Amino acid sequence: MSATSSITVDGKQVELPVKKGTIGPDVVDIGKLYAKTGAFTFDPGFTSTASCESKITYIDGDEGVLLYRGYPIEQLAEKGDFLETCYLMLFGELPTEAQKADFDYRVTRHTMVHDQMNRFFSGFRRDAHPMAVMVACVGALSAFYHDSTDISDEQQRMIASIRMIAKMPTLAAMAYKYSIGQPFVYPKNELDYTSNFLRMCFAVPCEEFQVNPVFSKALDRIFILHADHEQNASTSTVRLAGSSGANPFACIAAGIACLWGPAHGGANEAALKMLMEIGTPDRVDAYVAKAKDKSDPFRLMGFGHRVYKNYDPRARLMQATTHAVLKELGKQDDPLLEVAVKLEEIALKDEYFIEKKLYPNIDFYSGITLKAMGFPTDMFTVLFAVARTVGWIAQWAEMIEDPSQKIGRPRQLYIGPDRREYVSLEQRG
Length: 429
Ligand code: SDX
Hints:
With about 425 residues, the protein is mainly α. Helix content is about 50%, strand content about 5%.
């Protein structure tokens, strides 16, 4: 006997089915509510609204749990690599050795972009924000790869998925190189995913480039931590864009645009700028006071989360990665880390943060690590986008393959003027 929930609207009582997932909260299926009661539900920000069924990622915000296809993020980050996580996201199971080798081979051989794309970059100012460049260039991929834009073709969907995962690092590195006036560096097939990316970012034609294995391992872990996160704002953007039948490149470009916001993926750049502005541990108290002041719009960037009301498990793993990178650089006493540790210590003891369940999220430590590795702050969200591409594309594919899928089209509560008659210009006074 399936559970139901009853709701009465204007005296009309209706029974609505309750659906249960594998784990996590039940959902009340309100699909028939409007037809039966003439009323909509109202939930701006979707704080209590499930937009879809998904098998990809599960978050328990109270317990600070994150599972990719059922596997704890801590185990995947500790024992696997990013392309293994990509395979898991796309196919739902961890790959065998043969499957992993084949997947790595296929991704590696799609890392080059059409050489005509190089010309796009010369149209940008050198100081253009690299996220602006990424939105433009990723959307433009659909101008080149017509053989993987038919979303009804499973084969084309898979080619587009592989191409997106493979080409994002190349485009990200090109955006960085362009911003510093250095020549683009082509990918090298003998390198692993993150080593290839680091070389495309930091190699110069004048000398051989040796990838630091501590950095490539750290970046691989950072990519795993950022790969997917249920129906966050940018993933929901990709799903909504995809629900109209738009091609995958255009949908990912929409996701990149949404991720750019400082309340979302832009928080890693904003968090580092905040730590730099605070500067020294003795100034932390004043900033915590600002964050608590309702009349001050300032928020502690890298703190708080819609779902996590406990420590973001990714933040803990991020913190460990930060220490590994700083140790490699002999910078264990990095002043930014000192400020971050002090800020976290004070905030976690403060009644305001405890009562509102505000904890460090993944963006709190990532910026310190990326800065130490040599990335400028405006590249931080680009790296987030590189990692999240697999989550976006896996969620997009899941939506396309969902037999109940239809175009997303929310309703509204209209609070504008009632019908009124047009007044001619002369009569408007
Ligand atoms: C990401 O959704 C995802 O999964 C996202 C993400 C992913 O992997 O895709 O995890 C990535 O986006 C992480 C979040 C990065 N953003 C930041 O670090 C920006 C700073 N944090 C916030 O702006 C905020 O916490 C959000 C946007 C992350 C969550 O906002 P909510 O859930 O809408 O909560 P809210 O804005 O309603 O805040 C609840 C209360 C408010 O106070 P009251 O109005 O109830 O008195 O907490 C306060 C807020 O003022 N608050 C903060 C705060 N975050 C919330 N106060 C100070 N500093 C903060 N950082």
